[in-house]
Amino acid sequence: MASAGSPSSARRAPQAVQGLERVLWAPRAWVANRWREGVLLQVGDDGNWAAVQTEVRAAPGATVLEGPALPGLVNAHSHAFQRAFAGMAERRDVDQDDFWSWRDRMYRVALRITAEQQRAVAAQLYLELVRGGYTQVCEFHYLHNATDGSVYTDEPARMARAIVEASREVGIGLTLLPAVYERAGFSQPTLREDQRRFRAGAETVLAMRDAVRRSVGYGAEASGGPAVQVGLALHSLRAATPLAIDRLIAGSDGAPIHVHIAEQAQEVDECLSATGLRPIEWLCRYASPDRRWQLVHATHSTPGEIEAIARCGAGVVLCPSTEANLGDGVADLPALLRHGVGLSLGTDSHVTRSAMEEIRLLEYAQRLSKQVRCVAAAPQSDEPSTAERLFSRLLQGGCRAAGFALWGLQVGARADLLVVDTASPALLGVPASHTLDALVFSSPVRPFRDTLIAGRWVTRDHRAEAAASIAARFAQTMQQLWQEAPSS
Predict the structure, then answer these.
(1) Cβ atoms within 10 Å, residue 205
(2) Which position among 10, 144, 213, 315 has the lowest Cβ density within 10 Å, counted as fewest Cβ atoms?
């Protein structure tokens, strides 16, 4: 086949953010886990891909993309309010600093952020995520109550609504995951005072799920934007009683269920002491997780536990930048890949907001711990590219984590894509065959010039219409939250 050229009769894409696109033509695009030439994509009235054709040399009337096209990634784990804490906990004046001391400082933000401020922070974060290569975010939401710990009597889901509003303002897809949070630990039957805003039992969370679904029109597009998905979450085994776990499972449907698990060695030790089992071992034995389940972090897991995850079909959400920032440890990526566990990415505390950086950190942590290179590559199965293998696996895992049946550049999936900026310094002169390798492992990079979500442009030529107003509100919120610099 001769290489496909840019069709002279096609129109160039406009610079401003427009309404629903209908027909797009990409010189190259990532289709079915490989680069394909001359890809014609048609958007249906529902904002999904109605047609995807490859090896198309000419497409009169189509919008010509200014670079190669990639599917957007799912950010499978986010605590939006923690974006206001990024960079605020990087000093140490005590002998020991770890996840638990970081958590105590993070609570100071959680205790004072209002719903209005939550929306401002989330909007800034979500726009940064779009620019970083994500078109869907799974919001693991446990900041439920008023600052004094009381339920918002007029609207119990007020903080959740702020998240929904922020996602719609930006145009990113959202999977909202309200979380059960009942106790401070395995041996602590109640919450600490500084956890008062998190209080929510299984019945509360199920009611919140239903209320949000009613308010957003579950499964329906919102003003032309992507539909809001709503699933469920358990903050962790230490924060939810077995009774609450049973009730949540009984009230669940086909939507995703996410849970923090085995992130910290101390958490594993406490679970062993309280139950006689490790966290993943306990979950697999007593909660019967299935393909709906996503285990967030799973950092401290044994080979037997990884095999158990694979058998039940649950997925694992890895958050490399946060796990590095908090000193969590390094997951057994080779074993997860070897057993075919579904994998997805999350930015968690948002110390970085770039998908390519997360993938790079995921691989680099393995190289540092194992003292070898290209750990995730699999030449024996004709997958010699670390970046391409990870990207493909993360697309598939993110689809399930967010609650979709289809994802990527295929008919029936939501019409999302990223247009690679080939003028980025990291890509100058790089052969087309190595585009993903350079996107992940050559930095700094401003990788994506345009982003399409549900058939509508959210960014064009690195610009978004609402960026200035979103940034201004975020800056004002940060000034309000940090009138005094945080102590160490």
Answers:
(1) 26
(2) 213
pLDDT at residue 384 is higher than 90:
yes
Query: Distances in Å between the alpha carbon of 484 and those of 122, 148, 349, 481, 487?
Result: 22, 21, 21, 8, 9
- Spatial distance between the Cα atoms of 22 and 35, rounded to a whole number of angstroms: 22
User: 28 is written with which tokens?
Assistant: 């190259």
What pLDDT does 19 receive?
59
Q: Which of 297, 300, 416, 450 is an active site residue?
A: 297
**Whole-angstrom Cα Rg for the chain:** 22
Position 450 pLDDT exceeds 90: yes
Whether the model pTM is above 0.90: yes
Residue 222: C-alpha distances to residues 174, 218, 227, 401, 453 (Å): 12, 10, 6, 21, 13
What is the distance between the alpha carbons of residues 395 and 231, in angstroms, rounded to a whole number? Answer: 19
Q: What is the C-alpha separation between 208 and 300, in angstroms, rounded?
A: 31
Whole-number Å distance between alpha carbons of 248 and 202:
5
* Mean pLDDT, residues 355-374: 98
The two structure tokens encoding residue 210: 């239903």
Structure tokens at 172: 């990113």
Annotated catalytic residue, options 328, 332, 348, 416: 348
Question: DSSP secondary structure string, 239-279?
Answer: TS-HHHHHHHHHH--SS-EEEEES-SHHHHHHHHHHHSS-H
Higher pLDDT pick, 355 / 447: 355
Supply angle C-alpha 40, 44, 48, rounded to 5.
85
Q: Is 348 designated active site?
A: yes
pLDDT of residue 325: 95
Q: How confident is the model at residue 17 (pLDDT cuts 50, 70, 90)?
A: very low
Amino acid at 222: A
416: nearest Cα among 437, 403, 433, 399:
399
Which of 106, 102, 54, 133 has its CA nearest to residue 452?
A: 133
Mean pLDDT, the chain, rounded, equals 93
Residue 331 to residues 318, 319, 320, 396, Cα–Cα distance (Å):
8, 10, 9, 19
Give the residue carrying structure tokens 């189509």: 62
**CATH number of this structure's domain 11-71+408-468, picked from the four choices 2.30.40.10, 3.30.70.100, 3.40.630.30, 2.120.10.30:** 2.30.40.10
Can you tell me whether residue 104 is helix, strand or coil? helix
Q: Is the dihedral of CA 329, 333, 339, 342 positive or negative?
A: positive
Judge residue 454's burial from the number of C-beta atoms within 10 Å of its C-beta, 0-12 exposed, 13-18 middle, 19 or more buried.
buried
